[in-house]
Amino acid sequence: MEYINLGNSGLKVSRLCLGTMNMGSSSWKPWIFNAEQSAPIIKYALDSGVNFIDLADFYSAGKGEEVVGGIIHKLVNRDEVVITTKVGYGTGGGINQTGHSRKNILSSIDQSLKRIGTDYVDIYMLHFFDVDSPVDETLAAMNEIIKSGKARYFGVSTMTVGQLAKILISCERNGFVKPINMQLQLNCAYREEEREMIPFCIDQGIGVSVFSPLARGILSGEMSSTRNTTDFFTQQMYNDAVSFEIVKSVNKVAQNKNLTMAQVAQAWVLQRPGIHSMLVGADNVDQFKTAIQALETQFNDDELYEIDRNYTPCDLINDYTSEKRISRIAREAKGCFVDVGV
């Protein structure tokens, strides 16, 4: 396993991060694994050297933190792993049980620590940018949590560059601790964060961790999975002609290299500039093995061009662009991939 300092911090994390949105309770979503199903995946990840584990209070309405936390404590000493969890979407239905108000943040951290079974999390993350809460209020609460020792660092996720800049300005103005991690979506079929967000994070010394490297599964070729047939987000984000052309290109490169589509797609993400860690939400041990193999996968110029050639600009994927994305048009193939069948 490879390790890297997360941004300009001293925190060392594995290049692969265990994604756990699929662990908790199927009463939340039909594709969620229970503790018995999740344990072998978690054990394999830890045995393979993964020390970075991603959680959120939102996952299975809190049950995800309970399930994953319980398994981790049976397998490894707490200080050997980097645990991150998120606040924002919440676990309850109350009007003050979501968002990034001081009330919800201070309440949510205590509930998350109790569910995970730990005195602290390594990174406490804002799950999105809450436009309804004053940024100074939000960051004062996050700063207080870090000063109290309930979190060692804080991070952010899924927002615009302007919103991240607003957070950094508030930190500067008030002397608050700054975020060390930006978690964002990046894959062959969605690259908008490469235009401004990732270069901005590089400039500011903020580590970048990537979720959905397989574009919610379409880049693995598994369109008939339970998740893809029940999760409307897949249709919202990747139901366009360009996305499907990119899937075909990834398949062509995979066939050319005698690899799986998933390995090609994940290797592409791991080699992008500024990417520190990639989340792996595996449904089984073999899928995690593929991600490990992706760490050593290399591409030649023709292969990279084939993966890249279909991509065209699109709307950002975030809470504000849901159901508003515009279809795209691909470029023509060239080189050894002209007239190559799928």
UniProtKB/TrEMBL annotation:
Domain called NADP-dependent oxidoreductase: residue spans: 15-309
GO molecular function: oxidoreductase activity
Database matches in Pfam families: Aldo_ket_red (PF00248)
Top-rank taxon: Bacteria
InterPro entries from the UniProt entry: AKR, AKR_Detox_Biosynth, NAD(P)_OxRdtase_dom_sf, NADP_OxRdtase_dom
Keyword Oxidoreductase: yes
Keywords: Oxidoreductase
One GO CC term, this protein: cytosol
This protein's name: NADP-dependent oxidoreductase domain-containing protein
Protein species of origin: Acinetobacter higginsii
